[in-house]
Amino acid sequence: MASGYDFCPRGITRRSLGLLFAGADMGSASVGGTPERPVVTVQLSDGALRALAARVGQSLPVGNEGAGTVVGAGSSSEAQGLLARTVAIAGGAMYTQYRAADASACLVLPEGTPARTGASSFVNPLTALGMLETMRREGHSALVHTAAASNLGQMLVKVCLEEDVPLVNIVRRPEQADLLRSIGAVHVCNSSASTFNTDLTEAIAQTSATLAFDATGGGTLVSQILRAMEVAATTSAAQYSRYGSTVRKQAYIYGGLDPGPTVLTRNFGFAWSLEGWLLTPFLQSIGPVRLGQLRDRVAANLTTTFASGYSDEISLKDMLDPTVFSRYSKHSTGEKFLLNPQLFD
Amino acid sequence: MASGYDFCPRGITRRSLGLLFAGADMGSASVGGTPERPVVTVQLSDGALRALAARVGQSLPVGNEGAGTVVGAGSSSEAQGLLARTVAIAGGAMYTQYRAADASACLVLPEGTPARTGASSFVNPLTALGMLETMRREGHSALVHTAAASNLGQMLVKVCLEEDVPLVNIVRRPEQADLLRSIGAVHVCNSSASTFNTDLTEAIAQTSATLAFDATGGGTLVSQILRAMEVAATTSAAQYSRYGSTVRKQAYIYGGLDPGPTVLTRNFGFAWSLEGWLLTPFLQSIGPVRLGQLRDRVAANLTTTFASGYSDEISLKDMLDPTVFSRYSKHSTGEKFLLNPQLFD
Hints:
The structure is a homodimer.
Chain A: E1 2-7, E2 10-11, H1 14-21, E3 30-33, E4 38-41, H2 46-51, E5 66-70, H3 77-80, E6 86-89, E7 98-102, E8 107-108, H4 115-118, H5 123-137, E9 143-145, H6 151-163, E10 167-171, H7 174-182, E11 187-190, H8 196-207, E12 211-214, E13 217-219, H9 221-234, E14 249-253, E15 258-264, E16 272-276, H10 279-300, E17 312-314, H11 322-328, E18 337-339
Parallel strand pairs in A: 9-10, 9-12, 10-11, 12-14, 13-15, 14-16, 17-18
Antiparallel strand pairs in A: 1-5, 1-7, 2-18, 3-4, 5-6, 6-8
Helix pairs in contact in A: 5-6, 5-10, 8-9
């Protein structure tokens, strides 16, 4: 069933960067090789090198997802039906000009959709939908989300508005709060504000959120969220219990924007759970039928709810240019790069 | 159905101390009042006081569990049948000379069992059995336990030996390791040893333990355990994955011997979960039939598997004596106090 595809643009995600640069400080990288085949070298600390021992010497293909035009297909009618259509896939090894993929793995985009529009059809849209799906499956009725001004965060704001799900957005800067409010976000808390803990507790009390998705990982933010949930739960409790409230508080860490340790002060009783959350095992857990429904919803709303914005479009060669990678390795809000492997300068 | 009981000795647990002293530094306590009715006063920090705002002005009865002779009973045949028997209960408010309790809540001890033997029939034995029950319900096959030289830890060693469940014990001192080995423990790791991380990884690899119960809470120990599980899981993996192994790693924090923050370095992939664990909601979750089976098992083995050792027996008045409370508030391994409210000096 394998078909040949011309896979064009794909967004450069933090996940791909982790694989590409192994978490190294790219400010200390040096560029050698030839202009046609540049080689970037960067030193890893001893500790980081030990942690990465299992990948030393391995050639690892990069790129989670992308979209492109089908330029060749196998003989099956399913594969033949895809010829000349724009499709998106999330199969790894996407930083390439041509990519073979199973026909069944292709998300067929509406006729006329440019590849650029479909380049980020999987990870962010399905993560946003996956958060809501997790919320319902585990019996919660509202969400807390951190790093909420990201492309993903903006999708989540839109999806929650569509489904009338209360959402508490946590951002780091006032302009990020303004951005989210401009697309309809109701509860936005700025973690840099001196009133943050009070603001967060108030927003959680208003929404009864007992589930959080955290993209930062490091620092005290998850602990502050669990504490705010606990304070919101106990404020109305008549009886003091030294074990805390019986309200179940759940937080998932799904990213590591802050690579430092997660610090939990545990001032939120015993009815809490903190877990890692990854898209792929989650999608496996919901089964192919439900996954198909979610994918169809994404395809039908790629230019509205699930639209991704890009600040720059770069070529494969640009990726190894120090003036370019020093920018895209910074993970700044508002800067999102699109890799176009068919771009030549 | 309420019956009158003469409730004698009960162990002084860390949980009761948290309620009694509110986590205050008892080294700075002063004793006033009269010899007959001493009053202990201790200063709380502003932060601690804020955290305890909900209990200010409340009179809170103390004592999780105890045992004693039934000296009076209601008219029902169930209650009458308990007269003159030794029973144990875990109903709170146990630091008292007489205690009324529901007949159905009484664990009837074998004829002739002294109250002292039954004083700790609930919390430690059912916690040890609860850990094994949790292990089976969640599909794990081996356990890691911290602060493993405690009374509870020794019970867990015995129960795991009886059921042939591999157990990795973590202690802080060589003499605690010796103690556990003397009662049959196979895997004992000393967290103060320079080889601790290697020792722990080796023991986890040998036992395939993917579930840990941690009594300490604070510090990096939970993180080290999850890391050791991850290393054990990936050592044999052929392919490097930047998301870590797919082996599910679970840790429960069930105590707070170290009141400092829990510090997670998150170098253990995304397939992990850290949760609070409390005995009471766990027992509610397994239902009355299974709880009855566990209770019967405890009653039948109180002098063997579930025997508790006490270093001291003290009176209610002793509890407020500074030379005594400075000792029992220290939580030292090997020192366990039995409160006997019928003791007068």
